[in-house]
From TrEMBL:
Part of the 50S ribosomal subunit; part of the 5S rRNA/L5/L18/L25 subcomplex. Contacts the 5S rRNA. Binds to the 5S rRNA independently of L5 and L18. GO terms for molecular function: 5S rRNA binding; structural constituent of ribosome. GO terms for cellular component: cytosolic large ribosomal subunit. Belongs to the bacterial ribosomal protein bL25 family. CTC subfamily. GO terms for biological process: translation. It holds the Pfam family Ribosomal_L25p. This is Large ribosomal subunit protein bL25. The gene is rplY. Residues 8-96 form the Large ribosomal subunit protein bL25 L25 domain. This is one of the proteins that binds to the 5S RNA in the ribosome where it forms part of the central protuberance. Residues 104-188 form the Large ribosomal subunit protein bL25 beta domain.
């Protein structure tokens, strides 16, 4: 299932250059530009509060957006830069790049764990430790997965889930080349402590 692409609503901005950008900021807007895709750059602006809200939500620069500008065709874009005020750290300008459906991009995809009730380790009181709740993948812009699914059926205490154990969408691959850990099934803290005490006792007996 493809990931739903969120809308980014902007307005076309009259004029370019520093004067027009300053006028946009005075009007409570953040000026920006859309480039790429074999089309002329388009000057746009977004209400300051709307852009700030999206920036605070996180992953603005790693999200694929459906840009909606009145009078223009919708286009898929990704943010390439957000310039900020050096003192206030607030956005002053942004750059968006148009993407084709076949373009390859890096995006963070959330990980969902299913069938916990079918994991013997969890039935024993084991704890699922999630190392990565999302994974950065190189994906095709036209085929973005909504999530990665990890099936915990049969997983027992001590089992480790690597990225190689996760079914990835066709054409997608992690940005990290090594076989990193996504999650593991750890023993309950009390059980782990008891096991450590037992091991220490055995070592002491052996030394004696």
């Amino acid at each position: 299932m493809a990931k739903e692409i969120p809308d980014l609503v902007a307005q076309e901005r009259a004029g370019t250059g520093k004067g027009a950008a300053r006028a946009a900021r005075r009007a409570g807007m953040v000026p920006g530009v859309v480039y790429g895709g074999d089309v002329d750059p388009l000057a746009i602006q977004i209400p300051f509060n709307e852009l700030l809200k999206k920036l605070k939500a996180g992953q603005f620069k790693s999200t694929l957006w459906n840009l909606k500008v009145e009078g223009q065709d919708d286009v898929r874009v990704i943010c390439r830069d957000v310039q900020r005020d050096v003192v206030k750290d607030l956005p002053t300008h942004f750059d968006l790049m148009r993407l084709r459906r076949t373009s390859k991009i890096n995006l963070y995809i959330p990980v969902e764990f299913i069938n916990e009730e079918a994991a013997p380790g969890i039935k024993k009181g084991g704890v699922l430790t999630v190392v990565r709740s999302e994974v950065e993948l190189i994906v095709t812009a036209g085929d973005i997965p909504e999530k990665l699914v990890v099936d915990l059926t049969g997983k027992d205490i001590g089992d480790v889930i690597h990225i190689s154990d996760v079914d990835l969408p066709a054409g997608a691959k992690p940005t990290i080349e090594r076989d990193f850990v996504v999650a593991n099934l750890a023993a309950p803290s009390g059980l782990a402590a008891a096991a450590d005490d037992e091991a220490e006792g055995e070592e002491a007996a052996a030394e004696a």
